[in-house]
Amino acid sequence: MRKQLEKVYDPKQVEDRTYQFWMDGNYFHAEVDPKKEPYTIVIPPPNITGQLHMGHALDETFQDILIRWRRMQGRSALWLPGTDHASIATEAKIVEAMRAEGLTKEGIGREKFLERAWEWKKQYGGRIVSQLKKLGSSCDWERERFTMDEGCNKAVKEVFVNLYEKGLIYRSERIINWCPHCKTSISEAEVTYEEKAGHFWHINYPIVGTDRMLEVATTRPETMLGDTAVAVHPDDERYKDLIGKMVLLPIVNKEIPIIADTYVEMDFGTGVVKITPAHDPNDFEVGLRHNLPVINVLNEDATINENGGKYAGMTREECRKAIVSDLEAGGFLKEVEDYSHNVGSCYRCSTIIEPRVSKQWFVRMEPLAKPANEAVRAGKTKFVPERFDKIYFNWMDNVKDWCISRQLWWGHRIPAWHCADCGEITVSKEEVHECAHCHSGNVHQDPDTLDTWFSSALWPFSTLGWPDKTEELKYFYPTNTLVTAYDIIFFWVARMIFSGIAHMGEVPFDTVLIHGLVRDAQGRKMSKSLGNGIDPLEIIDQYGADALRFTLATGNSPGNDMRFSDEKVNASRNFANKLWNASRFILMNLSDEVDVVKLPDTLTVEDKWVLSKYNTLVKDVTENLEKFELGMAVQKLYDFIWDIFCDWYIELCKSRLQAGGASSLGAQQVLVYVMEGTLKLLHPFMPFITEEIWQALPHEGESIMVSAWPVYDPSLAFAKEEADFEKVMDAIRAVRNRRAEMNVPPSRKAQLCIATGEPEVFEQGRPFLQRLASASEVTVADSFSMEGAVQVITNAARIFIPMDELVDKEKELARLNKEKEKVEKEIGALSKKLDNPGFVSKAPAAVVEGERAKLQQQKERLARIEESIAVFQ
Question: Of the four listed, 159, 263, 295, 419, which is most buried by Cβ atoms within 10 Å?
């Protein structure tokens, strides 16, 4: 007994059951198979703190479309899943949870804290994975990885030691970006800059031994507590005589030198700058050149430390107010100027970062960035769209050494041991119990952990078993496509490229597919503050995963943001229902004779038309996917299924299905052939509904997801028959449109007299014209001479319909005259505008041309109306 589909498609009844069927069949698993070409995607690992948001849904949908398509093409398609430990974000969540219990990190100690962190991972780490499954993600879950699992940890140590031994990792006291909230260093890539309104405070610094002043402007008066010099340009004539003299640092009452340095811009402000080596990266470099003391005045939480004297303990904001007030009282504040400037914030918590001198671990970037740049310039890795390589080059060309140490406990601990006796450092992949330099046993491991991006940079090869030379690594690396948003090109993409080249000798992927952001219906970025975020799980619950996926793919083009709305997802659900109803119609009309997918020996003209259209669809969708034009592919599928297959071909088949016999059997075979093939093309986009329908139709194999992807078949290219049948369809559309304009109900039949130079085309189309154009009779000839007939003109024919059979003549004349009056009025207004020299000379050329085109359209419309009036009269 053939399976019948339920009357209404209910995603809730289908999706979980279907996903379990795929899991039980082990269809997601990819094996090393020398007979197959590999295709690999590594998932951008979501944080264990996270849950599925619209950005993830878009990202994972695109990856799943690509992996399902390649799997059906016969590739050994591996989509490698996993999650990221996300050190800063996860540690912040755990600290927050502990605060509610009245506990602190320091209070419970490192070991107990890490026990809690692993417990957190166990509790929440799987949450996003189960949500990805709800979306239909066909990841190889047997190969799921975690950035802190044993294998990834081994890879991290290997890389750290390799780079250290090559002199590419070093420890140094330098200015770093410090987050006072997360209480850790962060790299330049983790700082977001925003234009903010601020002030320039102009302060007079008295020159010792004179009654002169040097005017200095600063946006951060609180840092003057750490000033160790003021600087002028060596060629600045205004100050040449002052170089080497001292100024009195206001409030602090300490003498500091006036130095000369080319860093100072003579034409900016007064040409004098305060130098605070501990709190500004440029000042730090100046300080090194002039051997200036480095005085840090801030604690880890950005409060003032003991070097701040009476201001110690204040927040930076309180200190600023107090210092400005004291400067004013002491007569040192000359003026306050409004000023807008770039302020850096921590990208995780949005706290304003503090440049701070600190001893940290760094990666020397220039030797790593150079080959990574060359690889992209040589096309070994391509960005889609190409314009995004500019972000990559801009960052890589200006890259600074990467600060990789973090003052956190959750993460990969730095594999370096400090000797308390000789002060030397031992870097090792193995646990160290004695100093490699003096052999003392008095060693302790560096307390810092590595930047999260250090381990994620190794993701494409660490997940495949590196540093061990596994079969998987040999077969699946380099991977093929990386799918990600444009906002992490420098965070992650660039780091994977230089790491892949440095440790594997090859780029990690050949293509980076960049997608945009999902915005709300008004085009705004989704955010907590706006309260406009949309939960993809709620959408899946309401509309089904297929409707969500179809919406995310529709209208999407690489690199561009998309707008998400309920109307769009509702339209996707309607499309799913249309597909379901068409499938039910086919199944209800299917005889037991049709038990395999094959075409009949004899094809009718409408069969050839739909098969030719389907064949083109196969070629177009495949080409679109090759070019990553997912939005274009899905639009073509939508148009074909909705318009060509459902609205036309099924209608064309109805009389044959009712007639029975060979004609009915042929129609059934073509319906099944086209539907089965179209379901395969649609499967990567809408996996659940396509599997459910495919299982009910005649098919070969266990699951649609491992069935063969359709290929273009030259024997189904019926170009002439397709073109001929389109002429009949044009005639049907034109007659229907004219009847609709004249408000003629479909039940009112009328004679069609078709004058054409291609009579055989319309003779062949006679039954369709009769049934679908409400014809009582169809006559085809070279020409007709008919008085009082409505005329319908297409590219291939002039169709006459006797007026009396269609409408009440007097009423139609009145309607046409009213329409004529309206069009004449429009022509008059447009002509007046275009006759006005002022408009023609002043309006943009495109606007003038647009008005001329409108006038021409209205004139043509008037001619048609007058022609119709003439017919009536």
Answer: 159
